[in-house]
Structure formats: C-alpha cells, structure tokens
Amino acid sequence: MSLFACTNCNSRHPFEQLSKGDQLCKDCRKTFPLVTCTYCRLEFHLLRSTEKDPICKKCSYNLKTYGQPSCCEYCNIRAAFDGTKCSRCLSSEKKYGAPVACEQCKLNCAFQKTTESREKVDGKMLCLLCTLSYKRILHKTKKGEKRPSGKDHRRDRKDRHTKIAKTENSDSPKDGKPGSAAAAALERIGSARNSPLTIALYSSMYNDASSEPIALESHITELTELKEQVVNLKKQLQQKEQALIEKEKKLTELKADHWEKEKELRQKMVQMQKQQAERMEGLQTENRNLKKQIATLSKGKDKQITTSG
Predict the structure, then answer these.
(1) What Pfam families does the record tag this protein with (predicted)?
(2) How many angstroms separate the CA atoms of 72 and 93, rounded?
(3) What residues contact 243, with CB distance under 8 A and at least 6 apart?
(4) Contact at 8 Å (CB) between 114 and 95?
(5) Separation between Cα atoms, residue 155 and residue 129, nearest integer Å
(6) How far is it, in rounded angstroms, from Cα 216 to Cα 300?
(7) Among 62, 79, 61, which Cα is nearest to 70's?
(8) What gap in Å lies between CA 259 and CA 282, rounded to an integer?
(9) What interhelical angle do 180-194 and 151-171 show, nearest 10?
(10) Residues with Cβ < 8 Å from 178, sequence gap 6 or more?
(11) How many beta carbons lie within 10 A of that of residue 201, not counting itself?
(12) Considering only CA atoms, which of 85, 46, 45 is closest in space to residue 62?
C-alpha cells in the first residue's frame, strides 16, 4: 500500500486518511482549528494563527495574483477573482451545465449532478454550501441518534419498559385495549426503532439548525460586500483628492503665468508711454525752434523792405 506524508508532521498515512484540502493527518486535524475562508466560504485547518480574516491557500494565491475579488453572479459569494464567476461555479458550469435554483437558499447556484451525488443529500437539489451544511446537520443528528452502550443502555431500556408498563396499567380501559398514552409511547418506540431518522424529524431539525449557518454566511457575505464598498469608496476618495490637488496645482501655475504676463504688459505700457512722452517733447522742441527761425526770418525781411524803401 502506498503511503503519503502529512503536510505538517510528515508522518506516513494512507491517502484516504488525509484531509482533502490540506492533506493533514488525523492528529494534526485535531491540533489545528477548523475555520471558514473569508472568500470561498469553505472550511480549512488554520496552521498559523493570524489576526486578519482567515484565507485559504487558493484564495490567498488568487488574491496576490488578481487582487480583490468581486461577488459571483451565481452564488453571490465574493470569490470571483478573475471574471464575474468564482472558480467553483465556473468549473461546475463546464461540467454539469447551467445552474438551477437551490432548494434551500433559493439562489441559482445549484448544478445537476449525478444521481449518486444527489442521493447523499436525500435527492435534494442543493448548492455546495447548503450541501455541506446539510451533511453537517445529518452527521450531528445521526451522532445524537446513537444509543448509549453498556449499563446506561440497559438502565435506560429498563426505565422505558417500566414507564410503559405503568402507563399501560393506569391508562388501559376495561376492554383490555391499550390506552392513548400507551399507544403513543409504543408508537414512538416503534418509529424510533424502525427509522432512527424520520423525514419529518430531520426536516424540522435541518431547517432549525441550518438556518443559522446560512443566515450567518449571508451576513458575512453582506459584511464582506460592505468592506469592499468601503475600500472602493476610499480609492475613489483618494483619486478625487489627487485630481483636486492636480487641479489646484494647475490653477496656481495659470495664476503665476497670468501674473507674469500682466507684469510684462504693464512694463511695456510704461515703456511705450515714456517713449511717447519723449517723442512729444522732441516734437514740441523742434516746433519751438522752427517758430523762432520763422520769426527771425520775418524780422530780416522787414528790415530789408524798410532799407530799400
């Protein structure tokens, strides 16, 4: 027989005795706690204690490769790292076809599996999470249905027979037929002996016990979605703040450019006004000189006319 090593203690065991996901032996499975992954919602053994939310190896790898996931369009679990569907629903869709409604959570995330697989859940059409919850409740119920062994079993059986005998003697009518209480007790014992897990009993226990984990999972999904929304809002806020800083920087540059151009324009205007004033002053000086020359020439002509006359 081929033996395989435990991934933690390296002890050799048959492959059937190792856990499916982590390949841990029975002793290591008892040592490390069984937790639920934050993203894919599957259970795994936490080998290292951490203050953050527990994440399985597969989701941890996908988180580093693809970043934060989105909600799957089928099962509504935040495990769609690459695309709009989680890897579980994507592989099931390729293998079994389009999904159908789950009988428990009413989401379109169950798949038409083989008859052998459906017989394990009493022929119900369930998604993976509801199937795991169903099997857990079934295991706990069957475990509770086991009868005690040894002295406790004999004592309980003796007490039951004594109680039934007393009930028959006290409640039996005159015609010798068993009374209602005795009949009910016999019916209960017979039904328990014939079918340890009746359909009605299991249905009620399943509905009561499975509603809590499913409700918890839905709350965790909503909480994860809210966390994702908060992260997205923070990113949007940072982007808007960065854009606002860029706009303010550009506005400051435009104001500085406008101030420089306005300064140059004022300097040009002052220089042009100065040049204009100097030109006007030169023209006025030239005009005065010309007037003096005209006056001088006029006086010279008048003297010539007087002397000639």
Answers:
(1) FAM76
(2) 13
(3) none
(4) no
(5) 41
(6) 124
(7) 79
(8) 35
(9) 150
(10) 168, 171, 172, 186
(11) 15
(12) 85
At which residue do the structure tokens 């989701």 appear? 59
Question: Which tokens belong to 165?
Answer: 């005998």
How many CB atoms within 10 Å of residue 137? 18
127 within 8 A of 105, measured Cβ to Cβ: yes
* Cα–Cα distance for residue pair 140/135, rounded to 1 Å: 9
Which residue type, as a one-letter code, is found at position 135?
K
| Contact (Cβ atoms closer than 8 angstroms) between residue 25 and residue 13 | yes
Give the C-alpha separation, 174 to 178, whole Å.
10
Distance, in Å, from the CA atom of 88 to the CA atom of 132, rounded to the nearest integer, reads: 14
* Rounded CA separation 146/189 (Å): 14
Among 88, 59, 55, CA closest to 74: 88
CA distance 224 to 80: 13
Ordered alpha helix ranges (H), the chain? 26-31, 57-66, 87-96, 115-119, 128-145, 151-171, 180-194, 199-308
Task: Assess contact for 68 and 79: CB atoms under 8 A.
Answer: no
Three-state secondary structure of 21-41: CCCCCHHHHHHCCEEECCCCC
For the chain, 309 residues long, give each residue's pLDDT as a single digit of tens: 677 788 778 788 787 777 776 777 877 777 777 788 888 888 887 777 766 778 888 888 898 999 889 888 888 888 899 888 898 898 889 988 888 988 888 888 888 888 888 888 888 888 888 888 888 888 788 777 665 554 455 555 555 555 544 444 444 444 444 444 444 443 443 444 344 444 444 444 444 444 445 555 566 667 777 888 888 898 889 899 999 999 988 998 899 989 999 999 999 999 999 999 999 999 999 999 999 999 888 887 777 777 765
The model carries a pTM of 0.43
Tokens of 264: 């140059």
Q: Are 74 and 35 in contact (CB under 8 A)?
A: no
